[in-house]
Design brief:
Layout: H1 5-10, E1 15-18, E2 23-29, E3 50-54, E4 64-65, H2 98-105, H3 146-172
Antiparallel strand pairs: 1-2, 1-4, 2-3
Length: 173
Amino acid sequence: MFTSDLEVAQCEGKAVRTVSGIRGQVKKAAKEEIGNQPKRKGGQPREGIARCTFEDRILMSDMVFMCGWADVEIPCFYNPLITALQPRDKTWQGMKTVAELRREHNFSIPVNKDSLYKPIERRPRKFNPLVIPKSLHCHNLKPGETSRLKISRNKAQASNKKADARDSAEIMK
């Protein structure tokens, strides 16, 4: 990402972002670390390698971007309008815009056929049917017969309540 450790030092604390949207921050230049070993024994470690922290784990295939801004001097350009070639009684008139020329000559705006909106044509999606494993089948229910299961559960709960009421009545006697 950088060409020297000096560039890394200038960018310490700046925000970085991966293509997948994981945010991070430049911490410092990597001096003698695992990924920054010299190629030959006694050689210098590579320059421009930085340590960065991220919100989540990033993949080796993720590209890391940093938005950097540089001051650019814009040269001043002064082009005075010289009307010495016209007679003094005439007023200067600049070039006509494209819109003015189109209005005068009744030209329509050119249309690029590739830029027009087209209707979206999608094939209907086909979903596989729902398959319930045999081990999960209860009371020989078929898919969609949940109402029978609810009715049988309600009956079981009602009979349990009646039995509890009988037991409590017998205890009170």
